[in-house]
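Notebook entry, structure prediction.
Reason for the run: the old model in the group folder had no record of what sequence produced it. Starting over properly, with the input documented here first.
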Amino acid sequence: MAKNTSEGSGKEDLSKVPDEELLRWSKEELARRLRRAEGEKMGLMVEHGNLMKDVNRRLQLHLHEIRGLKEVNQKLQDDNHELRELCCFLDDDRQKGKKLSREWQRFGRHTAGVLWKEVALSQQKLRELEARQEALVRENLELKEIVLMLDEERSGAGSRSSIDSQASLTNLAGGAGGTGPRDVGDGSSTSSTGSGGSPDHHHPWLEEWPLVCICVFLCVCVCVCVCVSVSMCPSGLGMLWSFLSSL
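New structure, fully documented this time:
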């Protein structure tokens, strides 16, 4: 009974055993309990060392993980910085493109306005030139009608002058029948040679009147072409003037 009590109490902590009970124990019991306590203490120390080794190993693993995470974090921060710079560059490029597009739109609107004005002026000039051309065509038609009328009048005047000349020749032949030889119209008499003073022989320009009219018509056409070319190309006026000066 005493042995069982001592074994049961040996498992207890010696620091908790009161001094009276320790004095009642024998030397063998005290040595045995001391060795047992030392063994338990060594076991606890070994277990504590193992636990510390495990803790250190886990701590090293955690440190390695922390270092890896720090490296990953640094890499991510570098990537984030590069992405920020790229975003800033792209934003600047976008702003420049937007500004350039606005300038191009403004330039396009200005160019379109200028082109519309130029087109309007060109259309107005074309209308004016068409009006001038129509007026010149009307004038040419009127001149053509005048030329035809003058040609008809010239033809009528020529026929009348030939009739008058024949009548005058007949009268001259009748008046000179008693005093001189009679003109038979074969050119052998003096009266026949005197018939060269008829109006047809005194006015030879009447025979060239159609040629004169054609020349006038061509001059008018040339003037029309010159006016149109000068209106379309103002520099042609200087070339024309230099050409006329050389002539």
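Summary: The two ends are 163 Å apart (CA to CA).
The old model has been moved to the deprecated folder.
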